[in-house]
Task: inverse folding
């Protein structure tokens, strides 16, 4: 064998060995395959029914290089681990926050269950959870992503209708909302600790909200504040247009009705509920409003509108056949109940007038009168629509009657 | 073969091997299913491993597919099914709420439209959860829901019992949905739907009793001996009874529960019903008082009274002390008991066919309430009484003769 041939053979051996080594190296470096039954995006539909146990076994075998949820002792580290892994897969921050929040919530299930339904224990645990939520979310998402998620949530809460804000304004609103949140937590803590009672807490909460609204108004200015709180004319007009859809008013009629509504709302806002004449003034404002509507729309359209806005009327139309009613009977019930309500309202006014003049009210006589009025109305309805239809209306709470009776109660329920 | 032929053959072989070696050396490793897993994104600095970058979030997929993808990844990380189910539920709720808010804004809160939307949501819930969790994950979650809802006593069920119970429970759920839909369509009225559902529930309970037997059924409802004992021990923790006292109290409680069940099965229209309930309560209280002794029993009753607990909690804020709290507690208990007895006596007379002057009854109650209020005011002072009233501990309602609620109050 010549030297050249011997060299070629040695070279062949060397090259063959190199190819084998490289091939083995490639094979070792090949990444663990994502479990197509569980994680492969192409597998959603086809493998949806794959067994959960099998999926778990396959998954744990193939993804053993990843940290496993159950293998991490601390809840916070566990959460951070899954969030980091999901983030690396390009999962949006909003979804990461959803995962972190639900994982955090589930961590508290045991604490709540251990309360045995005892309200005092449950409200303590609830407050503890509320107070620790931000820190837990911050730890899971990291400062920047936490702030982004929390700011979005706070702005959403702050504005019923979103309005454009500058980054500086967004920051200010966020700070206001966080202050309000902290104040509410502090008040809840005071209530639970017994340093403030429910009535004091309620008053303090109302004041916090009033302060917050003033500050929000200062940040946004009147116009954007009104829009964000759905107090602007556009929103009110939109509401009205929807309510009036069944009578289809012309533009000029709509403008007149819109004006009547504004006047009515102003009149109501000026009333003092503590005033002796409050109910009388309230009634007068409502009557003026109704008159304006009737004048603008005409009596028939106005009546039609009121019918469409009356839940009892709507119920009667819906179950007309089941309840053995027809249009005539429905109109009769509707008119009778309106007269009844008006009579009760007028009587109530008289009673309140007596009270405001410092006169003693004979409540027994009041109850007797109301019982008599109710009895007469019920009898009239029964005679006209028949016993079966009347029973159906009663059973379905379409007919509601003035309450009577007097009985002080004792209990620990909070004043609402 | 000649040397020349060997040389040529080896030259070709070596050339091929050299080329293969170069190709292998230059080739980068790639994931086995990179093609199926979609485009590989370069790992960012936050990326803990290149494996994860290969599993990229399907940004452009439909929402249900994104949700399923997310759940699959989380499951692969070992997140328990109950947490996965919470995530899916929350995501669904979030999207439904957003949709409801948009529709509500568009229709100005039209109740008919919102009811239709709620129905649609209820009808789609199981399918959405199943799509996200997979059949087994869904079943595991839904079985836990069933256990929570209808097996409060955590009775151990055999696999066959569990399967039958689940089927019955799903049937009842389906029936509830059907009735809601019929009500919405005007095919049954609200009272009719409510009556029908009550019948369906009664039928379900009967089927469960047949399946489990009366005793185990009671256990599943947390009304069996074990559950009663556990609850009673919890309720009596502050009284710390001896074991023999506890057994006596447990017997009394079980007898009371049995009698209450018998009474509940009878007609509630019976004028005597409220009185018999009250009699049962009193008999049980008397037995508890006898076993524990009056001091311990009264103390236990106070601790279980929300009004008493509130007064103790805020005693400094409301200017109270132990004596005043005991006075208020006793005065109000006396008032409540006397008022109930008075009303019960009037009802009893009416039930026997005797004429009752209800105006006089109401007037009597009114005077008694005013007298109680006056006594409390004299004893506590106006300030403390105001505090108790403002916080709902003492409520003396005024007769309102108020407007009926028939009108929905909606003004133009």
Result:
């Amino acid at each position: 064998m010549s030297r050249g041939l011997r060299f070629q053979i040695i070279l062949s051996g060397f090259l063959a060995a190199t190819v084998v080594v490289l091939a083995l190296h490639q094979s070792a470096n090949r990444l663990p395959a994502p479990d197509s039954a569980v994680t492969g995006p192409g597998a959603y539909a086809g493998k949806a029914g794959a067994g959960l146990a099998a999926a778990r076994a396959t998954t744990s075998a193939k993804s053993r290089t990843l940290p496993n949820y159950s293998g991490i002792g601390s809840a916070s580290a566990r959460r951070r681990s899954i969030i980091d892994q999901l983030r690396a897969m390009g999962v949006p921050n909003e979804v990461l926050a959803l995962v972190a929040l639900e994982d955090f919530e589930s961590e508290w299930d045991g604490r709540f269950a251990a309360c045995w339904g005892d309200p005092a224990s449950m409200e303590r645990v609830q407050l503890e959870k509320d107070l620790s939520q931000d820190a837990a979310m911050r730890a899971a998402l990291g400062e920047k992503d936490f702030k982004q998620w929390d700011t979005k949530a706070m702005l959403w809460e702050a504005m019923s209708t979103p309005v454009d804000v500058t980054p500086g304004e967004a920051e200010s609103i966020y700070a206001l909302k966080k202050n309000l949140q902290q104040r509410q937590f502090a008040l809840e803590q005071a209530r639970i600790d017994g340093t403030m009672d429910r009535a004091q807490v309620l008053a303090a909460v109302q004041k916090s909200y009033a302060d917050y609204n003033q500050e929000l108004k200062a940040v946004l200015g009147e116009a954007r504040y009104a829009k964000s709180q759905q107090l602007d004319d556009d929103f009110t007009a939109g509401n009205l247009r929807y309510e009036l859809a069944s009578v289809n008013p012309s533009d000029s009629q709509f403008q007149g009705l819109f004006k009547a509504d504004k006047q009515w709302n102003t009149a109501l806002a000026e009333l003092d509920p503590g005033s002796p004449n409050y109910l009388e003034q309230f009634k007068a404002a409502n009557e003026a409003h109704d008159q304006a509507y009737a004048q603008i729309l005409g009596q028939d359209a106005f009546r039609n509108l009121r019918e469409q806005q009356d839940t009892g009327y709507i119920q009667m139309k819906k179950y007309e056949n089941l309840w053995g009613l027809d249009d005539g009977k429905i109109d009769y019930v509707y008119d009778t109940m309106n007269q009844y309500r008006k009579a009760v309202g007028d009587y109530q006014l008289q009673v309140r007038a007596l009270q405001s003049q410092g006169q003693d009210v004979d409540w027994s006589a009041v109850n007797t009168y109301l019982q008599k009025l109710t009895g007469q109305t019920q009898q009239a309805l029964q005679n006209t629509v028949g016993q079966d239809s009347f029973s159906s209306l009663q059973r379905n709470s379409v007919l509601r009657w003035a309450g009577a009776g007097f009985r002080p109660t004792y209990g620990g329920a909070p004043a609402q | 073969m000649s040397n020349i032929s060997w040389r040529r053959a080896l030259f070709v072989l070596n050339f091929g091997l050299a080329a293969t070696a170069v190709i292998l050396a230059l080739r980068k490793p790639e994931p086995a299913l990179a093609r199926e897993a979609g485009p590989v994104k370069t790992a960012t600095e936050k990326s803990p491993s290149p494996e994860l970058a290969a599993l990229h979030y399907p940004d452009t997929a439909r929402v249900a597919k994104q949700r399923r993808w997310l759940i699959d990844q989380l499951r692969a990380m070992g997140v328990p099914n109950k947490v996965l189910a919470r995530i899916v539920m929350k995501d669904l709720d979030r999207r439904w709420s957003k949709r409801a808010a948009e529709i509500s804004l568009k229709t100005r809160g039209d109740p008919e439209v919102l009811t239709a939307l709620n129905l649609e949501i209820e009808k789609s819930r199981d399918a959405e959860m199943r799509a996200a969790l997979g059949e087994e994950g869904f079943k595991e979650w839904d079985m836990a829901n069933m256990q929570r809802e209808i097996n409060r006593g955590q009775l151990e069920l055999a696999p066959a019992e569990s399967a039958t119970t689940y089927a019955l429970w799903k049937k009842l759920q389906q029936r509830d949905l059907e009735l809601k839909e019929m009500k919405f369509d005007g095919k049954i009225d609200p009272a009719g739907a409510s009556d029908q559902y009550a019948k369906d529930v009664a039928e379900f309970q009967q089927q469960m009793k047949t399946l489990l037997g009366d005793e185990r059924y009671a256990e599943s409802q947390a009304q069996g001996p074990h559950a009663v004992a556990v609850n009673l021990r919890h309720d009596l923790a502050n009284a710390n009874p001896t074991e023999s006292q506890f057994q006596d109290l447990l017997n009394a409680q079980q007898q009371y529960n049995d009698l209450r069940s018998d009474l509940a099965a009878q007609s509630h229209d019976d004028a005597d019903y409220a009185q018999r309930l009250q009699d049962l309560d009193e008999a049980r209280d008397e037995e508890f008082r006898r076993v524990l002794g009056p001091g311990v029993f009264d103390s236990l009753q106070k601790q279980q009274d929300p009004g008493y607990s509130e007064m103790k909690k805020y005693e400094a804020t409301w200017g109270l002390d132990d004596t005043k709290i005991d006075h208020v507690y006793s005065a109000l208990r006396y008032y409540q008991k006397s008022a109930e007895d008075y009303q019960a006596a009037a009802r009893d007379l009416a039930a026997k066919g005797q004429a009752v002057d209800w105006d006089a009854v109401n007037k009597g109650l009114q005077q008694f309430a005013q007298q109680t209020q006056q006594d409390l005011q004299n004893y506590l002072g106006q300030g403390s009484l105001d505090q108790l009233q403002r916080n709902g501990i003492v409520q003396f309602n005024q007769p309102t003769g108020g407007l009926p609620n028939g009108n929905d109050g909606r003004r133009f």
